[in-house]
Write a structure and sequence with these properties.
Blueprint lengths: L4 H7 L2 E4 L4 E5 L2 E4 L5 H9 L10 E3 L17 H17 L2 E2 L10 H7 L8 E4 L13 E4 L2 H10 L1 E5 L2 E8 L8 H12 L7 E6 L1 H4 L3 H9 L8 E3 L4 H7 L8 H11 L12 E6 L6 E3 L7 E3 L13 H11 L14 E4 L7 H11 L9 E4 L4 H9 L2 H7 L3 E2 L20 E4 L14 E4 L2 H10 L11
Parallel strand pairs: 3-4, 3-6, 4-5, 6-7, 9-10, 9-12, 10-11, 15-16, 15-18, 16-17, 18-19
Antiparallel strand pairs: 1-2, 2-8, 13-14
Bound molecules: 3-isopropylmalic acid and iron/sulfur cluster.
Length: 464
């Protein structure tokens, strides 16, 4: 029978099928960070259990880390406590940890792929919703709750019911200035922030195939923002080339063996999905959000809609009120106070390159505070090797040290109440970047242009 990519990977990991449609799923890799692991460690210890397969776990602090002076003790008490607890737990249980200052430290969803921990055909979990990022490699990757973190620690397995499958196909050539972030914001604007609920999504089509691995990660990363359980893309030459030679990727005969399996990872001709969508690449333009969920996105040149069918009138108006916008108006010309380039969605080297290419020889607008936070130590190192740090400094951008940072308004990386921030992150919820902060999600290019212009503009007029 024709199988989907999802089914192939899932079925290969079912240890046992239980009554009621629940599977015991084997988990190949478990990533942990400081926010969702402490209670799991406590639970394990209180029950006298050991970690079952600690060599399949990797830990890194990312959410609470300051993005300045990482060599100094952490100032904020809660953050220090969280990071110290992770360190202590990992030391006590002998779990591999890339702590602050380690060359492999970074946002968990950035370091997995860059270290070759994320591989095609793997099952991967983390107590973090954006674990969906790793699906870009043809892995089944999804976020889990703290009690499930403990379950995986103790058994390397997870009780799961199989989600429904959805395929989103984007064919054709992408317009100039359109990046992966625009594709996913476009998709979410079409499906709504709840449109993927209950599904695992496969992204397909020539426009997706044409993307780099980092761009594919941006797309899979935000699958969760339409409510989907996860997203994935069939591995191909682009994937294999990216994976090859990374720190923990298979080598020699192991590589050949892996490739044999990886080459079988695609949805068979005739495989059926519970839901299918098709969008032409030509319809996608640079996007921006105007509201307080990631589904409230528009083409940057379009007007805010008058109403939103899926949101009640009241919640639509509440959202606009929070943002200080009016229904039906254009965002063009709106002044912006902050630009944040970072997060597990868009903080990789290609993102930094897009920004540096655009801002080279330019200067940020006076009214804008522009902050750029690399996703990992490796991204930071590469940026410096390429001179991106200098280009950014000359343009008036502040390049900080790796972490989640202003994506969730951590430590001092906050957007003040009432201020507008064009952000390359993935969530524009009320207060996400700080109490009262107003977030507009966009691509790194849109963020870069906004920083230079000091306001929202039609970026097509600013491209060569
Ligand atoms: C802290 C963590 C549980 C959370 C998540 O799961 O998404 C965070 O990463 C976020 O983006 O809000
Ligand atoms: S960068 Fe943002 S979205 Fe990603 S894991 Fe960190 S807090 Fe969550």
């Amino acid at each position: 029978m024709a199988k989907t990519l999802f089914d192939k990977v899932w079925d290969a990991h079912v240890v046992k099928s239980l009554e009621g449609g629940i599977d015991v799923l084997y988990i190949d890799r478990h990533l942990i960070h400081e926010v969702t692991s402490p209670q799991a460690f406590s639970e394990l210890e209180s029950r006298g259990l050991e970690l079952f397969r600690k060599d399949q776990m990797v830990a890194t602090p990312d959410h609470n880390v300051p993005t300045k002076d990482q060599h100094l003790p952490i100032q904020e008490e809660l953050s220090k406590h969280q990071v110290d607890t992770l360190l202590a737990n990992c030391a006590r249980h002998n779990v591999t940890l890339y702590g602050l200052g380690h060359p492999f430290q970074g946002i968990v969803h950035v370091i997995g792929p860059e270290l070759g921990i994320t591989l095609p055909g793997r099952t991967m979990v983390c107590g973090d919703s954006h674990t969906s990022t790793h699906g870009a490699f043809g892995a089944i990757a999804f976020g889990i709750g703290t009690s499930q973190v403990a379950q995986v620690m103790a058994s390397q397995c997870l009780l799961q019911s199989k989600p429904k499958t959805m395929r989103i196909t984007i064919d054709g050539e992408l317009n100039k200035g359109v990046y992966a972030k625009d594709i996913i914001l476009y998709i979410i604007s079409k499906l709504t922030a709840a449109g993927g609920t209950g599904y695992f999504v496969e992204y397909a089509g020539s426009a997706i195939r044409s993307l780099s691995m980092e761009a594919r990660m941006t797309i899979c990363n935000m699958s969760i923002e339409m409510g989907a359980r996860g997203g994935m893309i069939a591995p191909d030459e682009t994937t294999f080339e990216y994976v090859k030679g990374r720190e923990f990727s298979p080598k020699g005969a192991e590589w050949d063996k892996a490739m044999e399996y990886w080459n079988t990872l695609y949805s068979d001709e005739g495989a059926t999905f519970d839901k299918e969508y098709n969008f032409p690449a030509a319809d996608i333009e640079p996007m921006i959000t105007y509201g307080t969920n990631p589904g409230m996105g528009i083409k940057i040149t379009a007007n805010i809609p008058d109403r939103l069918a899926e949101a009640g009138e009241e919640s639509f108006q509440k959202s606009l009120k929070y943002m200080g916008f009016e229904a039906g108006e254009s965002l063009l010309g709106k002044p912006i106070d902050y630009v944040f380039i970072g997060s597990c969605t868009n903080s990789r080297i290609e993102d930094l390159r897009i920004v540096a290419d655009y801002v080279k020889g330019k200067r940020k607008a006076e009214n804008v505070n522009a902050m750029i936070v690399p996703g990992s130590k490796q991204v930071e190192k590469q940026a410096k090797a390429e001179g991106i740090d200098k280009v950014l400094a000359e343009a008036g951008f502040e390049l900080r040290e790796p972490g989640c940072s202003a994506c969730l308004g951590m430590n001092e990386d906050k957007v003040p109440a009432g201020s507008y921030c064009v952000s390359t992150s993935n969530r524009n919820f009320e207060g996400r970047q700080g109490p009262g902060a107003r977030t507009l999600l966009a691509s790194p290019l849109v963020a870069a242009v906004t920083a230079i212009e000091g306001k929202i503009v039609d970026i097509s007029k600013h491209l060569n």
